[in-house]
Amino acid sequence: MSEEQKVIGVLTSGGDAPGMNAAIRAVVRTGIQRGYKMVGVIHGYQGLIDGEFIDLGIRDVSDIIQRGGTMLGTARCKEFRDDAGIEKGKAKCIEKNMVGLVVLGGDGSFRGASDLSRKGIQCIGVPCTIDNDIACTDYTIGYDTAMNTVVEMVDKLRDTTMSHERCAVVEVMGRHAGHIALNCSVACGATGVLIEEKIEDERNNLDAVVAKINKAKENGKRFFVVIVAEGVGNTAFAKPMKGLKDASFEGRKMDTEAIAEYIEKHTGAESRATILGHVQRGGRPSLRDRVVASEMGHHAVELIAAGKSDRVVARKEGKIVDYDIQEALKLEKTISADLYQVMDDTSF
Ligand code: ADP
To answer: Which of 3, 89, 156, 198 has the most beta carbons within 10 angstroms of its beta carbon?
Structure first.
């Protein structure tokens, strides 16, 4: 291989998501097609600073499209948040003849990519997170697989919940975004959903869920599923809930266990909390995640080949597009009001 052959690197950063491997494969194969030498960076930005590189040829990315996780490993790197860390990363890129870097991750990873872009390395972000909480894109890699896992798990819980005439209170991922919770509550036929975006609205708070369960009981329903988003129920994020009718819970941190206790007390339905946790991040990527990861990985390399930098790949209304990273980071994503209405009108 000639000394002058330009190199494109690829790394995975932040939380892992099913479909990252499919994106790595697409980046590597497209880059090779366009005449680049392809290099994988192990352990995200930390590996870039430490010079942990592996050459990636066509066959090195065989047999990974169907695998969850990331073959490159992922990490969080404090050092890369400072200019000195970014300078070290830039120096390693130059040493390697790396003109471009594809960063598979979330908003935090894109901030790092933008900083490195401003130092002259062509960085392109590809949105990978199961939470679907990246505002510039309708879809993030990993979201579909994670939701399918939730649906499969809740269907299983539903069987036992029905047999015992209980209420299953299920905490799903979505750190500060209720997209997984809302979609899965519709898909699982849940009676209630609690998401951070709506929790302070009295029509959608815990008392509203209790009222729904009690109404459903009057209509003959004997078992219930309530989906709680991580941003509401996770012990690390849970807060006392404002305006609860039962003052004995006032000031108490309302995590998923406490929510189950409240529901049991006010509905009489024996309630059990289940926290699905990291199982949602794993598993074979779904068809959708494999296809979107392939499209986005392909587009990222096309952008580098066209001389672009500081861009993030996105999917908007069925098309693959791209945005300036800084512009994209300013956008805010909202929950689908239409889907919330569907949930509200069908869950009783
Ligand atoms: P995600 O990419 O999933 O949002 P993080 O927020 O943990 O995950 O970010 C992943 C990594 O991106 C961090 O460990 C850090 O190396 C880098 N990063 C995050 N924020 C910044 C920032 N403001 N500037 C530079 N790099 C950042």
So the answer is: 89
pLDDT band of residue 3 (cuts 50, 70, 90) is low
Going from the Cα of 329 to the center of ligand 1, the distance in angstroms, rounded, reads 12
Q: pTM for this one? A: 0.95
Q: Which atom of ligand 1 is nearest to the CA of 76?
A: 14
Angle between helices 143-164 and 179-187 (to 10 degrees): 50
Pocket test for ligand 1, best of 80, 88, 143 (most atoms within 8 A of CB): 80
Which residues have a Cβ under 8 Å from the Cβ of 320 and sit 6 or more positions away?
295, 296, 299, 313, 314
Q: Coil, helix or strand for 314?
A: strand
Q: Which residues form ligand 1's pocket by a CB distance below 6 Å?
A: 13-15, 45, 76-77, 80-81, 105-109, 111-112, 115, 129
**311 beta partners:** 124, 324
Task: For residue 346, name the pLDDT band (cuts at 50, 70, 90).
Answer: very high
Ligand 1 atom nearest the C-alpha of 15 is 3
Confidence of residue 256 (pLDDT cuts 50, 70, 90): very high
- Give me ligand 1 centre to Cα 205, in Å: 32
Q: Which residue in the block uniquely carries the two structure tokens 């901030």?
A: 111
* Cα Rg, the chain, nearest whole Å: 22
- pLDDT for the residue 1: 45
Burial class (CB in 10 A: 0-12, 13-18, 19+), 280: buried
Question: Which residues are catalytic, by number?
Answer: 131
CA of 203 to the centre of ligand 1 (A): 36
| The pLDDT value given to residue 20 | 98
Q: Tens digit of pLDDT for each residue in 205-242?
A: 999 999 999 999 999 999 999 999 999 999 999 999 98
Mean pLDDT, all residues of the chain: 95
Å from CA of 78 to ligand 1 middle: 8
Q: Which atom of ligand 1 is nearest to the CA of 129?
A: 3
Q: Which amino acid is at 287?
A: L
What the block records as the tokens of 34 is: 């366009």
Q: Which residues contact 223 (CB under 8 A, 6 or more apart)?
A: 158, 161, 162, 164, 165, 166, 167, 168, 269
